[in-house]
Amino acid sequence: MTTSFAPLTVAIGDLVAHPANVRSNAPETYDSENIAHLKASIAVLGLLQPLLVQQLDGKFAVLAGGRRHAALNELVADKAAKGFTAKTKIDCRLVPEDCDVTTALSLAENITQAPMNAIDEFEAFARMMEVDGQTPETIAKTFGTTVAAVKGRLRYGLIHPDIRAAARAKTITLDTMKAFAEHPSQEAQREVFEALTKDGGYLQAYTVRQALKSRGVQVSDDIGAFVRADYEARGGAVAADLLEEHSVLEDAALVETILLEKLGAAAEDARMRLGFAWADAMVRYDYATMADYGRVYPGPIEPDEAAQKRVDEISAELEKLQLEMEDEGLEDGAYNALYERVDALEEEARDLQEAYSAEDLARSGVIASWQGGQITLHVGLVRPEDTVKEEGARGSSPSPTGEEAPDAGEITYPASLAEDLKTERAMALRAAMALHPEATLDLTLFKLVSDVLASGMSVTQAIKVEARKEYRSHAKMDEIDETSLEQVAAAHDALDLSWLDDTRAPADQFAAFRALEAGEKAKLVAFATASTTQSCFARDRQRDNLMHAFEIEIMPDIRAHWTPNAALFNRFKKAWLLKILGEDLGLTQEAVTLASSTKKEIVAFCDKLFAEPFATLTDAQRAAVAAWCPPMMQTAGVACDEAEPAADTPEPDSEVAQAA
């Protein structure tokens, strides 16, 4: 066996691939994107390791070093690369022609080199910058990678030495070590490391990140970005990081001071603009504390002549926009733009027709807090000492907590919720049709022959006889009640699909279909027709008398196919839920009691109530719970004009009302 190979230099143009190279059957190994970093390294540092070659047919075949060979060829082809041509000679080692272990040599070249330790790699990058004077940009160029990737490695290589040593000793994990890079100050890293390990506890990446948060606020954090300019103007210390987004505003107290000042200014601006009596600010809205506060709401007013003229203009424009939004060919971007315009117009119209009373303004105020990365205004709050106790006073509450009574006015449905309720109703109708195959078969056949043989308009547009399955779009499909889905699945499982064999010709399929019993055909036609029904609310008797009557026949009660759940209640306003409990279900005492609860608690109560009506309910209450649904969803209920969904209004009783 040959143990040493003679050195020689070979022109790049005289090199070819060796058939015994173990990577020859994996050409993707040599794709440009897979050797980019190698190409960059050779361009800057040269070829650091000679190629192993063997002379074949007058050429030098690369037995080991195929990726370096591919990178050299790319450098030759790259006109921007200097110093590399087909005649450029590179260092090689020659394997004799009679060598009998060529495959073993190629394999050994690829598998015997141990991968580099991650910490060694991080520290090597750091030394290149600290000792060799390299910059992240020059390092990235050398290794054919991005500057961001280099900075990421550099950050880990610059973690406090004691922490890197702990990772080497495996007393902490590599992920835990990386967590310390969340703060660029080695002193802050060391202090947190010592504090967390002094009792010998097991260190986790999560606890490290949480501890470092008390040492400052990252500039990429929503609060950090919001206050940074003022913070730096006041001389606040900034711990700079190689990655700018990880730099830290170290004076957390100054950050909070500036944030409260900005929140206070926003609250005062709202107070002056809306006419409230007082303004306040808090970094985080304390729901427990605010439970003792009351709340007042704007009431309807008679707009003056100019305001009424504007309301009329808005109404006309909204009608036009609603028609445009019904265009099925509308692209998503255009639809969203129309939707935002509708919301803005509806809000403007509401402001022209609602206002707080002078009495309410004189005793209420506004609090600004930081929520969801922005200033949030909580308007119409009444301090406990200012809550009006007199019975019947406008804006007052009979509840001892000062919360609004269950009567919150007319329930209106936001446009987005209305669209989803249409979908849920259509799914329930589909289940009902599938469960009534004879009636649905009659409807389908009647629709088909009437449209073809009768003169005039189609008997109903609700069924698409083109045999296209209707797509059910829903914003929260994973959260809806699954009753109708389960019923449809069960109906599908009961179908005889033996005739629907893809290996058969259509004529053979048709013959097998005709041989089915009439009842089986009815099930198939009913299921298919049910899948074509369009999403909408209860049919208007005047506009579609046929489907209005048919839906009442097969789905007299939608609750047989659908049950309200938490996903629906979460999209209702708190005041609506209290109104439904108190007025629709007859649970007046429960509504008053829950008025002081959070919306989350009320949603949980409603979800449990509808899932299994409580044993303590009266017969009338139990019947109301079993029958309740949004009125426009119930087939035999009050018809709702589906062309006019209500506006997505700010939640009057919620803890949050977004700043204008």
From TrEMBL:
Keywords: Coiled coil
Biased composition (Acidic residues): 641-654
One GO term (biological process): chromosome segregation
Coiled-coil zones: 304-362
Listed GO CC annotations: chromosome
Domain (ParB-like N-terminal) ranges: 8-111
Keyword Coiled coil: yes
Database matches in SUPFAM superfamilies: KorB DNA-binding domain-like, ParB/Sulfiredoxin
Domain of life: Bacteria
Renumbered residue ranges of the record's region Disordered: 388-409, 640-660
Gene3D superfamilies from the UniProt entry: 1.10.10.2830, 3.90.1530.30
Record has Coiled coil as a keyword: yes
Pfam families xrefs: HTH_ParB, ParB_N
PANTHER family from the UniProt entry: CHROMOSOME 2-PARTITIONING PROTEIN PARB-RELATED, CHROMOSOME-PARTITIONING PROTEIN PARB-RELATED
Protein name as it appears in the record: Putative chromosome-partitioning protein ParB
